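Hi R.,

As promised, here are both runs. First protein below:
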Amino acid sequence: MTALLFRDDPYARACATTVTAVDARGIRLAHTVFYPAGGGQPGDTGVLRLAGGATVAIVDTQKGEGPDEVIHVPAPDAALPPAGAAVGAEIDWARRHRHMRFHTCLHLLCAAVPHPVTGGRIGADKSHLDFDLQGAAIEKEAIEAKLNALIAAGHRVAPRWVSDAELAANPDLVRTMSVAPPAGQGRVRLLEIDGVDLQACGGTHVASTAEIGPVVVLKIRSEGKRNKRITIGFAGEEAAA
């Protein structure tokens, strides 16, 4: 089991910790700031710093078998540290922060387009959600204006927890049909954007919608007969996306 520091402090960029296990899948740590891939958000990348100055590049972070098992995937040619080694774990903060900004913006997109979400993906360059619009019409300009108004308003963003029973009694808290929150552990993490959105989510987020910055709707395209994919990017980066 790993202490998940990112769960309480998504702004933590590094931590001192100890290697607890190493095998063919990767490296386990006693504590970690690395977010493992899940809920459409990619796993973090970064580096482990060993005593003496050696480093191990971490190219991905994945979930293990248990609810709090995190596997840090090293570069193929990396010399692995032994169990018990003291290391410094440091994420690629620029990449993670972009994931945080996009992830929070996708929650705003859920509020701007109040229809069932059938899938999604968060990236460092652009992100998208798929909606089952059930025949409803949407306009790119209107969605973009709603998103930027919510961003500019600077709504507070913070996690809170509910029991499994509370979640079962409020199924609307699960917005993404393709990703079920983990149940059976006694409690489930919610992400609340004050006055705007509340839904089950285990990802990392910014503390205020203002931190997202201006966004653009890059495109809206059909995904099957009923689904529409809405892709967003950060304003000023349209050519790169």
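And here is the second one, sequence first, then its structure tokens:
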Amino acid sequence: MTSHISSPTPQEPVLILGAGLMGRLLGVALARAGHAVRLLDAGTPDGSGGAARVAAAMLAPLAESAVTEPNVVAMGQYALVRWPELLRTLAAPVFFQQAGTLVLWHRQDAPEAHRFRAILGGVQQALPSLPHPQAVDAAAIAELEPALAQRFHQGLYLPEEGQLDNRELLQALNQTLAELGAEVQWQTAWTLEQAQEHQRRQGGWVLDCRGLGAQGNWNMPAGGLRGVRGEVVRLHAPDVTLQRPTRMLHPRYPIYIAPKPGHIFVIGATEIETNDLTPASVRSTLELLSAAYAVHPGFGEARILELNSQCRPTLADNLPAVREAAPRVLQINGLYRHGFMISPAVADAVLEHMHSGTQTLAQRLGLRFDTLATTATA
């Protein structure tokens, strides 16, 4: 499934608005192909203020099928193969793991588990190439995660799923951009109109990857770009030895726990329909930490490193989209809670269009890709 996408005309300039995950991925690919790449971002190199810095960076298409559509699952499956290929090309190492996902529940939440299994069964029919979930009992759970021995008696193991270290990745992408000679300007917020004026003078392409910064350019009758809030806590828990991402099903606050190197754990759950970026509430924080403690009592002695709120850029249908706003002007947005899981698929689809004007990959994966031609005939 390795991508062999070529580039547009050599040395053709590319201006990218937004140097978050998608902007950096595209910037590296285009700079490596020999293009004069310029990225502009309103934030700072560490990604502060962006959803990519806060995210758990789980690559779990089957687990996420409970809350998304089969086409997003297909994009995630594609990206699981692409991520190791991409990481090998970067200037610095990035933690990457593909040890599967463990899904657990308490006995009183068995109805939620039944619902989850039914959803997985439907997705399996739509995408037969997905690995099959494996039911696990207490002994199998203890073998997979010795730290959870005797604590849970039923669960599901979802093989082949993975995760990476989002902050290491953002740093490695930034370092790679510098080594490739790309120009990156931080704390520089341009509008799409300013970028198009620059394009009229300099030529080349404009790629708008600003996430929620692009809200003013996604006004649509069916609903534009909005923020979906999430709250995430980062803990240092030396007494917890979970080895893979673990999810606990619950009808009110299902949580995920993503273990990172150095006994760092990223834990999250909530989704609130708002652009509000104020600090997390006491109630949601208590629920999040109580749920984590119910998975492993070692979290009771953990140290809270960060408690973050974030808003993920989301379109009306909760699905990603690429839109050609004008000749050689592409808007890439709406990755919602699946940015790390699907970004390689979206990036490869964008690169294919820039090279050949085709959308073969987008069509195969069910990625919405609106060109001027398709819009005119709609």
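A quick note on the second one: The chain has two domains: 14-54+166-225+316-377, 101-159+226-314. Let me know what you think.

Best,
J.
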